[in-house]
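Data deposition worksheet. Section B asks for the primary sequence of the deposited chain exactly as it was used as input, without tags or linkers unless they were present during the calculation. Section C holds the resulting structure in token form. Section D is free text for depositor observations; keep each observation to a single sentence. Incomplete worksheets are returned to the depositor.
Section A, Depositor: J.P.
Section B:
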Amino acid sequence: MSKRPLIVVVLAIAAGIGAAFLAPGPKASPPRAYVSFPATIDPQCREGKARMFDECSDQAALFEQARARAMADGKVLLVEIGAEWCIWCHVFEAHINGEYDEFRYTYGAPTEPEARYTTTFEEGPQWSDAQAASELRDFVAANFVIVHIDLQHAPNWTTVLEKSAAAEHYKGSVPFVFTVDPHGQFAAKFDHDSVERRREDENWYRGYDRRGLMTQLAAMRDAARAKS
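Section C:
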């Protein structure tokens, strides 16, 4: 019996396996361009589940560390209060770090804070803009130090609200993003709804208008500097 068909099958399987290894996976997130607190996440904290927020440490102390760094660098402190389950927190992070076109988020829900769902979003040609993404990333890196304050598990996040005089501006939704002056006092908050982009069809999407986002951040920076 001829062995040629067996050889052909083996080669076909090998080619298929090779193609699977060579096929591009989800685009990796670039390293952060801006100075961020927490700088690292303790892998011993809640089994290392977190990616953005320090869910174990004193958030008031984290805020003060970030404020000191912002003052030393001559930058404005941008505060983001949120949680790992908050999809818009991850969306905000990805956009200010210059990501575009394809996004991969792991998130939960307010009613399921421990759940984790991973979804890949495609921005689409009508919104994907590499130039605007690069400009936003460079602008944020040049002007801000960012501190992520966890409201789900970590202690003293409400102390950050109270001591910064931001409590009266907080309406309960996340992310709650605001700037403070060099004294750590509230200056201006981010208006999420005015720059939000979303689709609700089968190709659902969550994102921001980058030009509008940069305009808002510039105004928030200027408000903080005006109070210094």
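Section D:
Residues 4-22 form the longest helix (19 residues).
Residues 78 and 179 are 5 Å apart (CA to CA).
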